Amino acid sequence: MSSSSGNCRARRLTVNEDAQAMIDVARAEGIDTVWDRLAAQQPQCGYCALGLSCRNCAMGPCRVDPFGEGPQKGVCGAGADVIVARNLGRSIAAGSSSHADHGRDILETFRSVARGKSTGYRIADQAKMIRLAAEVGVAAEGRPVEEVAIDLADVLLDDYGTRRGSLSFVERVPEARRARWESLGITPRGVDRENVEMLHRTHMGVDNDYVNTLLHALRTGLSDGWGGSMIATELSDVMFGTPTPVMSEVNLGVLRADQVNIAMHGHNPMLSDVVITAAQDPELIELARSVGATGINIVGLCCTGNEMLMRRGVPVAGNHLMQELVLITGALEAMVVDYQCIMPSVVDVAKCYHTKIISTSDKAKFTGATHVTFDPERSDAIADEIVRMAIEAYPDRNHERVRIPVEPVRMMGGFSVEAILGALGGTPKPLVDAIAAGTIRGAVAVVGCNNPKLPQDLEHIELTRHLIENDILVLVTGCAAVANGKAGQMLPESAALAGPGLRSVCEALGIPPVLHMGSCVDNSRIMVLAAALADFLGVDIDQLPLAGAAPEWYSEKAVSIGAYVVASGITTVLGVQPAVFGSPHVVELLAGGLDGVVGAKFAVEPDPVRAANLIRRHIENKRQGLGLPFAEVEAVDIETAPVEQPLGAGSGD
Ligand code: SF4
Ligand code: MSK
Predict the structure, then answer these.
(1) 52 lines ligand 1 (CB under 6 A)
(2) pTM of the predicted model over 0.85
(3) Is the distance from CB of 110 to CB of 153 less than 8 angstroms?
(4) Closest ligand to residue 560's CA
(5) Burial class (CB in 10 A: 0-12, 13-18, 19+), 312
(6) Quick check: 278 and 440 in contact, CB under 8 A?
(7) What's the CA-to-centroid distance between 284 and ligand 2, angstroms?
(8) 64 C-alpha to center of ligand 1: Å?
(9) Which domains does the chain have, with CATH numbers?
(10) Rg of the chain over all Cα atoms, to the nearest angstrom
(11) Do 447 and 477 contact (CB within 8 A), yes or no?
């Protein structure tokens, strides 16, 4: 294959120059990537894509024929509605459990810090901890900080069980929304309880009413957004610091050809925080010099990258679909992983280079990787060991194979709710005033992953660009944030890309029109901000000119996030079709009926121009409902929408 045809293929797979260059190298060197494996999987199972297959028991597996010609019932008698709803509920439980378990790890370490056992950490934001303690009813005045911390940890640990009526942070939800949840019976109780109940309900012969199953699926999602994820975010801020605006850099250009490069990949900030510190140890820097490097360079991937960028300004090498390509630079001594979104394939790709894959969570081992069990009580020693392992790999690097294809792009991160309110003078009033005046039409959370079925980052970048051009403030997390960073849309000077109203606000405050709010668990920050805006106006969240979008989602965590965002009253547009279209009833409920139940619904629109148009019209409707000046927005003609074809069969060629 000629290099020009190779480039052409790479351009269809990703909009990023660094990824295109590495895809070409992978192909030239015969290294399989996610796109090759997607092509090899074609055609993917149509029953599964529609949510119509079930293997919940040993009378199956079963499938329902969507054309009405084959079987319409599984062996147990479950039809399309029940099977689709059960599958969706199980996905939400898996995603919610992932965030919940991440939150529990942080919580247990926080308790251990308070007991003086995990000495590698400290309570970095004591003021926030005291605020949280007051919020959940723990007395702080006149008591040692450690005692308060233990009591706070115990209250939040109780949230995982079932001892209280509802989760502690449900108190943050506007009263009208809480009343709605109560009337629907979907107030989240224990975090673990909702997830376990979801698994119970979807066992054969339990919940055989799809509406009932889906209502509990929303409750399961809510136990994530206002429970597991929120606990993870809040206590990470307490232990590692609440983010404030910070400049950093992004893309494969953040790797250093002359340094020991270590990529931190996964989700939990506990490990990355101590590795960053270890990499600054003069003894280890000297050791790196002794093997010929000029220093030690820590970079992030996926949400660990977002955590490190938000709090410490550490550069990010890329988002989800960059995890194999970063290895193909040949410049990485170690990829250190914990859990979630780490492809098993990284071990295979790393074998083509000198790179060590170091797994660290006993919950997430990788055959072929080097495992170092992470123990928060020995965090410093373990971080030291990991950095030494990376340094030891440096002499094995083949410098002739090192390809760092681009220069890094600058980006700004660090917009916690506290930082946003701080920039506004400590109150949401200036933001509310700007929205009321129409200077800012509304706000949209653009979140979620990459999915190789779509050209990488195209939807994130285009959708965001169209929204800010329409004076809509964009809040980003996860891989969507990294995509926008790479595109240069997250700098104060990118205000020039926005419409005149949003531009004027951003220029006055010195902030980008696209605000980085953190990792996947930090979508809980967006819930807190939405609740604060609603409370300030004395309305429910669903009345606000807000929307959500997950243009390139792939993970079960994203399904859980979508569930809690919608159940909290924010309509959400997905760019990738979820596996529910085998049941017209379920689709009608999610994309229509839910609006009358929780005041928000889902839509699926892969075209970023049409998605932006749909969102703008939704926001104008909400403005009208609040009695604010609104504009009529014409629907975009699909023929005029310049969108690339989604990838599917044959994408590997
Ligand atoms: Fe088939 Fe019902 Fe068992 Fe599912 S639960 S595999 S539909 S028999
Ligand atoms: S890492 S869940 S691919 S956003 Fe949080 Fe990115 Fe999605 Fe993983």
Answers:
(1) no
(2) yes
(3) yes
(4) 2
(5) buried
(6) no
(7) 31
(8) 11
(9) 80-240 (1.20.1270.30), 252-401 (3.40.50.2030), 412-625 (3.40.50.2030)
(10) 24
(11) yes
pLDDT score of 639 = 52
Q: Ligand 2 centre and the CA of 467: distance in Å?
A: 22
Structure tokens at 535: 């409370």
Which residues have CB under 8 Å from 423's CB, separation 6+? Answer: 245, 509, 511
User: How far does residue 57's CA lie from ligand 1's centre (Å)?
Assistant: 5
Please choose, from the candidates 291, 284, 539, 505, the residue with its C-alpha nearest in 3D space to the C-alpha of residue 396.
291
**End-to-end alpha-carbon separation of the chain, Å?**
10
Non-local CB neighbours of 320 within 8 Å, separated by 6+ positions: 302, 341, 449, 450, 479, 554
Q: Residue 442 in contact with residue 473, Cβ under 8 Å?
A: yes
Which two structure tokens, joined as six digits, stand for 154? Answer: 């115990």
CA 465 to CA 328: how far, in whole Å? Answer: 30
Q: Which tokens is 231 given?
A: 């606990």
Q: Which residues, given as ranges, of the chain have pLDDT below 70?
A: 1-7, 637-653
Quote the crossing angle between the two packed helices 269-278 and 229-240, to the nearest 10°: 20
- Residue 143: other Cβ atoms inside 10 A: 13
Choose one of 47, 48, 53, 56 to mutate for the ligand 1 pocket test, by most ligand atoms within 8 angstroms of C-beta.
56
Query: Quick one: which H or E segment has residue 327?
Result: helix 325-328
Query: pLDDT by residue (tens digit) across 328-349?
Result: 999 999 999 999 999 999 999 9
**Residues framing ligand 2 (Cβ under 6 A):** 267, 302-303, 319-320, 341, 448-449, 478-479, 519-520, 555, 557-558
Rounded distance, CA 353 to CA 327, Å?
8
Calculate ∠ Cα 36-40-41, nearest 5°: 120
Q: How far is the CA of 187 from the centre of ligand 2 (A)?
A: 26
pLDDT at 652: 37
For 178, other C-beta atoms within 10 Å of its C-beta total 16
State the pLDDT at residue 409.
98
- Ligand nearest the Cα of residue 551 is 2
Concatenated DSSP letters of 439-465: SS-EEEEE-----TTS-BTHHHHHHHH
Task: Tell me the two tokens of residue 267.
Answer: 């989700």
Helical residues (DSSP H) of 115-173, grouped into ranges: 126-135, 145-158
Q: ∠ CA(616), CA(622), CA(628), 5° rounding?
A: 105
**Amino acid 162: pLDDT:** 79
Q: Which atom of ligand 2 is found nearest the CA of 519?
A: 5
Q: Which ligand is nearest to the CA of 322?
A: 2
